[in-house]
Design a protein that fits this description.
alpha/beta; TIM Barrel; 8-stranded parallel beta sheet; 11 helices; 30% helix; 22% strand
């Protein structure tokens, strides 16, 4: 079962040849699209095209809860409302990293109302027909979201714990109010990135004097989204191996949330993926390239587009096996290098440079059959039996992952 999040911006995905829309709607249950930042009507049209092909297809809109919808007109509104901005303890605006975007204070009801209603405003009279919900990035809890912290682009200022937690409580109200708004619109739903609380639980963060759990955020959204699943911040960024104790929490939180009826979308990057990112083919034609991160550890990514596509196929088992350990009717897979549609989210014709082979991975069409039961867990080893496959994962080493088809 596939679901995901991406941009559709390349001119190769246009209205004169709808191969891409047919491919997406025949394979995915739904997708959260990033608004075209310069012309939001393009995104509305993309949703309309896909829902015309498959009316049951779900089309949501991605926004970043920290700094907004990421369109030119929404940024102008945010810039014009300094009272909406998070301020540090000295009263200075908190800016988001290298983007230098003002961070939103969701403890304010007017900020939440504007933010949640923005996609509905953009879709206008078509909202009820076309807009199936909202995907909020940045919904996880951290006690120092607004600093102090530094990276190569600069430093974030200090916001004390009480004000940090008040802003987070505002985000939870944002989720509650969005669920009411989109539920009343057409039964739509709310997704939240980092909503499963895996990293927060692994770090032993507390909120309201309780350890963060999968329920801390998931009680305020319908679907939890985990980006960089089993790559990025779930691994040792020197060796590329998983962090076993964090992977244990990853497994348990997904199983617990989905068993309780919550939906989960797992976005796996192939292999031990970590920034920086590169456009492929290197020195290729602008507009006909895809993005892929770097691999850390002893195994390095190839440097050709064809090599990257093959690497995605070769590494699939290290994502598909853990997915099958936690899979049920509420858990969805996205397997792609990054967040443009051509970054491996769908197979493309040979004249388009995309980050996966030209056809779907053969494992996706193999008969799996129903599970014989839930996953078995013994120490760091997880196993699960299906009618036509046996799955093995040892969270201490990604290369132990195995699917035996029978």
């Amino acid at each position: 079962m596939l679901a995901g999040n991406w941009d559709i911006r390349s001119s190769y995905f246009n209205t004169s040849d709808l191969w891409w829309a047919h491919t997406i709607t025949s394979s995915y249950a739904g997708v959260a699209l990033n608004f075209n930042r310069w012309n939001t009507s393009i995104t509305v049209e993309q949703c309309a095209i896909m829902k015309q092909i498959k009316p049951a297809f779900k089309c949501l809109i991605y926004q970043n809860s920290e700094f907004g919808p990421q369109t030119d007109d929404s940024q102008a509104v945010i810039n014009a409302h300094p009272e909406w901005w998070i301020k540090d303890d000295a009263g200075h605006p908190v800016l988001h990293g290298a983007g230098k975007q003002y961070m939103l204070n969701h403890s304010r009801a007017d900020v939440r109302s504007w933010y949640n209603n923005y996609p509905i405003q953009v879709f206008g009279k078509k909202a009820k027909e076309l807009l199936d919900g909202i995907f909020n990035d940045g919904m996880g809890y951290t006690p120092d979201e607004f600093g102090p912290a530094c990276n190569a682009t600069g430093c974030w200022p200090k916001v004390n714990r009480a004000r940090n937690d008040a802003a987070f409580a505002g985000k939870m109200l944002l989720g509650d109010e969005a669920r009411t708004l989109y539920g009343n619109l057409n039964g739509g739903e709310v997704w939240g990135n980092a909503a499963l609380g895996v990293t927060a639980r692994y770090s032993n963060f507390t909120y309201k004097d309780q350890l963060v759990s999968w329920q801390t955020v998931m009680d305020h959204v319908d679907t939890g989204f985990l980006e960089g699943a089993l790559g990025m911040w779930y691994m040792n960024t020197t060796t590329g191996e998983w962090l076993p104790d964090e992977l244990e929490i990853w497994m348990e939180n997904i199983i617990n949330a989905s068993t309780a009826g919550k939906s989960v979308v797992l976005h796996f990057n192939p292999g031990p993926s970590f920034p920086p990112f590169t456009n492929y083919p290197i020195n290729g034609t602008p507009g006909n390239q895809f993005i892929a991160p770097t691999w850390v550890g002893p195994e390095k990514l190839p440097t050709t587009a064809a090599g990257i596509r093959q690497a995605a196929a070769d590494a699939l088992v290290t994502s598909l096996a853990p997915f099958l350990i936690v899979a049920n009717e509420h858990v969805f897979l996205q397997y792609a290098w990054f967040y443009e549609v051509q970054d491996g989210n769908i197979p493309c014709p040979s004249y388009i440079e995309c980050g996966m082979p030209e056809t779907w991975y053969p494992e996706f069409s193999k008969p799996l059959g129903p599970p014989t039961g839930p996953a078995a867990h013994n120490g760091y080893i997880w196993t699960r039996e299906f009618a036509h496959a046996s799955v093995y994962v040892d969270v201490r080493t990604r290369h132990s992952s195995k699917i035996t088809w029978h």
